[in-house]
Each structure stands twice: as structure tokens, then as C-alpha cells.
Specification:
With 347 residues, the protein is of the alpha/beta class. It has two domains: 29-218 and 327-345, Rossmann fold (3-Layer(aba) Sandwich); 221-322, Rossmann fold (3-Layer(aba) Sandwich), CATH 3.40.50. The chain contains eleven helices and 14 strands. It has helices at residues 2-25, 51-62, 91-94, 96-104, 116-126, 194-204, 251-260, 277-289, 299-302, 313-318, 333-345; strands at 38-42, 68-72, 83-84, 109-112, 132-136, 148-154, 182-186, 211-219, 223-224, 240-245, 262-268, 294-298, 319-322, 324-328. A nine-stranded mixed β-sheet has the order 3-4-2-5-1-6-7-8-14, with helices on both faces. Strands 9-13-12-10-11 form a five-stranded mixed β-sheet, with helices on both faces. Strand 7 (182-186), helix 6 (194-204) and strand 8 form a beta-alpha-beta unit. It is globular and about 60 Å long. The mean pLDDT is 94.
Amino acid sequence: MLKCLLAPVAMLYKAGVTFRHRLFDWGILKSERFDVPVICIGNITVGGTGKTPMAEMVLDYMSQFHRVALISRGYGRRTKGYLEVRADAHYRDVGDEPLQIKLKFPEVVVAVCEKRAEGIRRLLAEHPEIDLVVMDDGFQHRYVEPKINVVMIDATRPVQHDRMLPAGSLRDLPEQLHRAHYFIVTKCPERMAPIDRRILRKVLIQVAYQRVYFTRFESFMPQPLYGDEAPGEPLKYGQRVIALSGIGNPGPFLQTLRGQYDVVAEMTLDDHHVYKVRDMNALEALLAKYPDAVIVTTEKDAVKMTNRAKVPQAVRRALYYQPINISFIEDSATDFLQKLEEDVRGN
């Protein structure tokens, strides 16, 4: 019944997106290309597809050869306009993901601006040494024409079976995938059948130069957010944990925790959730109910709880975050990154 109600809205949304793309195709709306190469890491769906871990992987590799900067919209921030991200910034001023990246790469210039073209112009004016820009989440934006488009695809939500918002999770047209140079298929099963890979390649590849890579998220041992207050020993297999997440698609995070620990409670919040006193109180109540449990959250959520004064002591002592990265299944990450670097340097 709900799908039937949402279908007309999805059709209107699709019509609006289609018309906007036509305005760019006809030259009425303009795409700006820069002298400095821009790598765009984006997707065509809402929810987590792994853009931030991929941006971190690209920054880590490209920093060996280039003066790299990252530009992001800074989703969910309370500020407007262009702003450079400092390591001591508040996540509500710059966004949780840009702050997470800045904390991991303090030497990289990270800036936020809702108008990406304007943001890149100012970034390059203030930092003329920059010779490569990574743009987080701008594939559907089109006011910037990147040199390279890297599009993240969620294997658990195949685009050929998805529908436009709000009936599905597509925020852009699958027909626009012809503009991609690389597809990174995330959340693949570890033993993905060759036939499944062939089907996805056939669906995705529309132009001969496009490449498809299959990946999964690799999780590591949870780390204490407040190492000076946490017990010294690492978490043990089967330990009782409280799962805390405020991300686009918490399913893989929760599934990983359930496979390693005894998840006694789950606190699942909206993506880009702003943590308040009531959330801290709820966590304290869960710890009182399960005194032998610890809290495990995501890296994205952890950056929002680094203000020691606003996190109760009981929560600080029990608070861990789980690092993740992207692991390539069929090909090596080095193969992808080397080809990406060749394209950056190519004409």
C-alpha cells in the first residue's frame, strides 16, 4: 500500500532530476572544470555506500605523490559557506565526516562548502600549492566537472532493482552512470560468485573505459575512545556489547558486531545524528542495566563524542569505536590506486 502511495511522488522526483540533467546537457546550467584535477567520490543512492573510507584510502595513497585537498558539503552542519576544517573544530560546524577525515589526515587541507565549485575556487586561491582535489559526494552535483568519477555501488541494493526516492533509495538516475570512470561495489560477500560479478559488470559498464572493482568492509578490533580511562585489555570474543550507531546503513556494522560479540542492546539513530544529553542518559541507563557490557560505536559517531566534558564518566570508560577500511576481493587495492594515479596524470 505504501509503495503505491509513494510511486507518484517517485515519478515526480524522477522527472525533476531528469529535467535538471537536461539543463546541464543543453548547457543552460554550467559545469566548471578546473586546471587542477578533481577526483569525485560519489554514489547515486542515499545511505552509506562507503564514500568516506574510499576518500580516506585515496587521500592516503595520493598524498605520496601530490599536495592533496578534500572538499565536502559538510552535511548536517549548522554553518554556511566556505570553511576550512581544523582538527579542533566542532562537528556541528564542519560536519562529522569532514572532521573524521581531518583527524586522520591532519596535514591534508579539508574544506566544506555547499557550493562545491565555489569551494574549490577558494580552496585553490588560498592554497596554490594544491595539485589534486578529492571531492566527497558530488557525482549528482554536476556544477563541478571532475577529471575522474569514482562511483560507489552497494551490492546489497543493486541499482537495477532499486527505485527512485522516496519509493526506493535512488537519488540519481542509473542512466547517469555512463559518466563514471570507476565503480567500487561495496558490501560484497567474501565469496562472491563469479556469475554475480559478471551480472553487475554487465549492468554497470556502459562505456569501454569503465572499470569495476568488488570490495567489502573490513572491521578491526574496537579501540577505546578514551584510552586513559578504559580498561587495559582488549575486548574478548563473545563479550557483551551495546551497539551504538547513527549512520546511513547500520546493517553491516550490526552484523559484524553480532558475529563477534554478544550484542545485548542496540541504540540505532538517524544518519548524522546530533548527540544530546538525553542520548548520554540513555547510554548510562543501558550500562546500569548491563554493567558488564561496553559500548561499541562507529568511527563517524566517535568523532561526535570527543568532548570529554559532555560525555559522562561511566560512558567514557566503556566507549569503544570500530575502525573499518575497504578490502578489495578480486583485485588488489594497489591495482585500483595505481590506475587512478595514471588517470590523474594523464591528459
